Structures are given as C-alpha cells and as structure tokens.
Amino acid sequence: MAKIAVVAANGKAAKKIITEAVNRGFEVTAFGRRAENDTDAKNYIQKDIFDLTREDLKGYDAVVDAFGAWTAETLPLHSKTTQHLADILSGTDVRLLVVGGAGSLYVNPEHTIQVADGENFPEAFKPLAQAMAAALSELRKRKDVKWTYISPAADFQAEGERSGKYILAGEEFTLNPAGESVISYADYAIAMVDEIESGKHIQERISVVGA
Predict the structure, then answer these.
(1) Which of 14, 69, 85, 123 is 20 to 30 A away from residue 60, measured at CA?
(2) What is the CATH number of the domain that holds 134?
(3) How many whole angstroms separate alpha carbon 29 and alpha carbon 3?
(4) 99 pairs with which residues across the strands?
(5) 18 Cβ neighbours under 8 A, 6+ residues apart
(6) Domain of life of the organism in this record (predicted)?
(7) What is the DSSP letter of 155?
C-alpha cells in the first residue's frame, strides 16, 4: 500500500486525487492551510507549505504538489512552493508529483513554441501559464529530486465526469481522437495515481488528455 501526502489538499484537483488514492487503498495524509478537513483523507494536518519540513514528509512514497495561485501577487508562489518542496525532498527517495498546467506544452517538434505562445491563447491566462512554465523550468534543473510534472489537457474540467479513461502523452500538445484537448479533474486524478503506482516518469514532464 502506497503512503502519500497531498499538499494544498483543499483544492478541487487535490480533492479528486485524494479520493482516487483513498479508493485504491492508499494511505493518504492531506496537508492544508484550513482548519477543517474538506477531503476524503483520514489523516489531515493543518500546515502551510512553507512551514513543511523534511521531517514532515519523511516516510512517504510520494508527495503530490497541488498548489494553485491565480492573482498577480501570488503567481510567483508556483515556483517558490515547488522549490521549497524540492529542497526538503532533496536526496531522498520520496517522489514529488506536481499538478501542472497545459500552457507550457509544446506545439512543434523542436520544442521551441508553447501553447501559451499561440495567437488564440487567452491573454487573461498568459500570466498564469508563464508562472507555471517558470516553475517547471526550475524543476527541470533539479537532479537531486525524483520529480514528475503532469500537465492536463487545455480544457481542464473541474466538474467533468469520471470516464475512467485517458491518453498518456509527453511534452507535446496532444488531441484525443475527437480532436479535443479536454480532461476532467477526476480522470486526471486517475492518471496521477497511476503514475504514483508505476513511477515510470522520474524527472520528466508528461501530459494527459481524456480519451
């Protein structure tokens, strides 16, 4: 049975990941800033990410970083929180899996143009995409951490149904057979927990799209 910690556990994606893991029999500890446990995890610890220590995360098989920030003032926290978690997991066997974004996926074989560079990419989402891309760029420099960054499809649906199916892809923007880039939080959670179980993509960015 895998023992995992989910950080920023009260977010929508985090809660889906926790539910999926609990249903598979994982031992899950949720870490969140709120006093109340709004997740399916039996173990809940109220603690800010920056207050987490190496000792807090000792003994887990994996840590899921589900942090999200949306305002101009907080966007840099994407990099800062991920780096803090990487620092306290440095040199250990505890894996770090990050809930990523789609804007940094590549749209050309040379990997020089990203989704967020496109003319049709909404201006309102560019700062968020840039912040998440910066966090990934910093993570790529870490050879001392067993990290995996998982990008969802472009249309990441919080209330989407759990189909139980998804397509696993790599660094490039991928469409499903219907020509869509869409996935529900619930199906993304399946992919996340599958990766925790398999451990096939250490120090890699992968992506998932609904089948």
Answers:
(1) 69
(2) 3.40.50.720
(3) 8
(4) 150
(5) 6, 9, 28, 30, 39, 40, 41
(6) Bacteria
(7) E
Q: 94: closest CA among 206, 199, 208, 207?
A: 199
- Token match 């809930």: residue? 99
* pLDDT tens-digit series, residues 75-112: 999 999 999 999 999 999 999 999 999 999 999 999 99
Give the DSSP per-residue string, 50-88: GG--TTTTTT-SEEEE-----STTTTTHHHHHHHHHHHH
Measured between alpha carbons, how far is 203 from 43 in angstroms, rounded to an integer? 28
Q: Domain of residue 56: give its range.
A: 3-210
Domain count, the chain: 1
List the Cα angle 13/44/158 in 5-degree steps: 15
- Residue whose entry in the numeric block shows the structure tokens 């306290």: 88
d(CA 86, CA 59): 15
Between CA 180 and CA 151 the distance in angstroms is 15
Q: What is the full per-residue pLDDT of the chain (211 aa) written as tens digits?
A: 799 999 999 999 999 999 999 999 999 999 999 999 999 999 999 999 999 999 999 999 999 999 998 888 999 999 999 999 999 999 999 999 999 999 999 999 999 999 999 988 999 999 999 999 999 999 999 999 999 999 999 999 999 999 999 999 999 999 999 999 999 999 999 999 999 999 999 999 999 999 9
Q: Please, are residues 186 and 17 in contact by the beta-carbon 8 Å criterion?
A: no
